[in-house]
Amino acid sequence: MRVLCIFVVLFLLSSQVQAQPPVKHYEMGFETVEVFEYIKSLRETNQPIPIFPTRTSNALIVRAVADKSRASMAGLQENDLIHIVNGSHLRAPRAGDKKLSRITSQDELKLGVIRREENRWNRISVVLPAISDETALRLKLRKTPGLDSELLPVVKVRHRESPATIFSPDNFQLYFTETNSRPTQLHLRMAQLLPGKTVGGTFIIATEDGQTAFVPEDGFDRDHKPSIFRRSKSPEWGPIQVELQLLLSEEGQRKIKEEFRVAEEAYEREFKDFKFDEKRTDKAYQERNKERLKQIAAMERINAELMRVEQNHQRLLRRQEQLANPASISGRNSRQLTDQSRKAIRALYTGLTPEQQEIVRKSVVSHRTPAFLNEAGLLQLEETGFAEWEIKLKRASQGWKWYDAPVNPQQLKLLRDIISSDNVTVHHASVPGQKFTVSAAQREQMKIVLDVFFEQGGKVQ
User: Fold this and answer.
1) Which residues have C-beta within 8 Å of that of residue 230, sequence separation ≥ 6?
2) pLDDT (tens digit, 0 to 9) for every residue of the chain, 461 residues total?
3) What is the C-alpha to C-alpha distance for residues 345 and 243, in angstroms, rounded to an integer?
4) Which candidate, 5, 175, 324, 375, has a CA 20 to 30 Å from the CA of 105?
5) What are φ and ψ of residue 192, in 5° steps?
């Protein structure tokens, strides 16, 4: 590997907020901007221009790399400089885009890349192997773990460019659920924000062949206003809350026990040979004994905290046992968890990012409900797969209308018609005048999801 000993300030596109050079997106899973266009945009906005390696004026800067794409799996990274494509140096403007635009999933792609590492430019090779068309389609999908209606593990598979949330303006998409890596159900999802419109109704999809009505799920199509005194919760709220509180309690016990072990070992090392003598009054001995007493007090505080946490843990275990007994509970909060459900809840939580775990802890584990979260908090909580019913309750109060249900055989023909049609509109029956058009991008995304669903053995029943 050749090393270019050019010590320059590393350019970072993210720091150049005002520069907006044209961005090119490639199906291999990365975006680029040309060095020439990037420098031009900096000049136009009077931004400082970084120093690039020599003979890279026609190179491409990798702006972003999609997770789990061909590019990311091959090792391409953000801010890489692509200066060679399949053995050809990029010697003219637009040369890189012309070459990359012709690459298909069945073509091997070899990139000569210059990468900034440890204050120097390194020349490396990145190879994207050829893949089948079926694999290429699957790479366009994104998998999100969650829980099904029985609180068992399930994976939702959608197009990676479609909204992750139900509650996206003019949302219209297909996704399917997957269990044990096998497709189970195909779902249609649509949503529209109609503030102030709280009356019930259906969604109407209009194609060249006519109109079809889709009835939303029950229980949300009315005015729900969050109240400090009335917390409407799903049947799963109590059991899930207790299960997560137990998990966090176990983590807390482990941390406190480890803290006590470290403190105890430190005490043994430092005061193993210490002999208490109440008759000694010299300053050195008194200081030494003072430090010993200080460490003993610290261990006593840790031990007291451990006892408090263990007492709370026993309380949670009793609550868990109570929720498992149908005779001891009543009303809507009567969902019983199986051992498999408990494992699924814990696995889903432990698989979240630290940021997602924090939002779950605040919203589900604590006594707060999603009704009091702001918009960012609601979106973050929805991504975790927890508190789905509570999120929908909050969204209904905001005026959201949505449909999210499995596709039946009668609807499958309509979906194929939608995908092949150039003019499809959607509106809620309560506001016929507020229509949105299913875009070409949405129809293409639906086609890919449908193709992969059936290619992997999925069935609509």
Assistant:
1) none
2) 443 333 333 344 444 444 478 899 998 999 999 999 999 888 888 889 888 898 898 999 999 999 889 999 999 999 999 999 999 999 888 899 999 999 999 999 999 999 988 888 999 999 999 999 899 999 999 999 888 877 888 999 999 999 999 999 999 999 999 988 788 899 999 999 998 765 678 999 999 888 999 988 655 554 444 333 334 456 567 788 889 999 999 999 999 999 999 999 999 999 988 888 888 889 999 999 999 999 999 999 999 999 999 999 999 999 888 887 766 555 554 567 888 888 999 999 999 999 999 888 887 666 666 666 788 888 888 888 888 887 888 888 888 999 999 999 999 999 999 999 999 999 999 899 999 999 999 999 999 999 999 999 999 98
3) 8
4) 175
5) -150, 140
- Beta bridge pairs of residue 191: 171, 402
pTM score above 0.85: no
HSE of 130, CA atoms in CB hemisphere, 13 A: 7
Angle at alpha carbon of residue 333, lines to 344 and 190, rounded to 5°: 65
Copy the structure tokens of residue 329.
């509970």
Contact 258, 234 (CB under 8 A): no
Element (H, E) at 84: strand 81-85
In the numeric block, the tokens 């709220």 are attached to 237
Vertex 393, ends 388 and 397: CA angle to 5°? 145
Domain chopping of the chain, boundaries: 3-134, 141-232+335-461, 237-334
3-class DSSP assignment, residue 43: helix
**What's phi and psi for 443, nearest 5 deg?**
-65, -40
Query: Of 14, 61, 16, which is closest to residue 36 (Cα–Cα)?
Result: 61
Beta bridge partners, 206, equal 211, 425
The 3-class SS string of 291-302 reads: HHHHHHHHHHHH
Task: Give bridge partners of residue 186 from the DSSP assignment.
Answer: 176
Which residue shows structure tokens 């072990």? 261
- CA–CA gap between residue 181 and residue 142 (Å, rounded): 13
Region of 68 on the Ramachandran plot (φ > 0 left; ψ -120 to 50 alpha; else beta): left
C-alpha distances in Å from residue 74, one per residue of 66, 77, 160? 12, 9, 19
137 contacts: CB under 8 Å, gap ≥ 6? 448, 451, 452, 455
Fold of 3-134: Pdz3 Domain (2.30.42)
Q: Which two tokens stand for residue 72?
A: 């990311």
| Alpha-helical regions (H) of 102-219 | 133-138
